[in-house]
Amino acid sequence: MTHHVPAELQNYVRQSIIPQYANFDKAHQIDHVEKVIEESLKLATYYEVDYSMVYVIASFICNSCSSVNQRRKVSSANNTLPEVI
User: Fold this and answer.
1) How far apart are CA 68 and CA 4, in angstroms?
2) What is the pLDDT of residue 68?
3) The whole model's pTM is what?
4) Which residues are CB-contacts of 83 (< 8 A; sequence separation ≥ 6)?
């Protein structure tokens, strides 16, 4: 499926975004984001979408989760409710 996504974009994501997943919890490692990208691109075949956008959005799926989880930890430590995004 990635043949619909420019190689330059794929390289950027592989070098700059995906390696960040090595620092996440066990459920959100590199293999997880690769599976999310793969499944997202499969789903994209059923719709008129920009495959590059699907690829990039899927690659960031847990990056936002990381910052939310970090805020939850801080909020829990402070015994307050987490801020809603």
Assistant:
1) 31
2) 47
3) 0.71
4) 71, 75
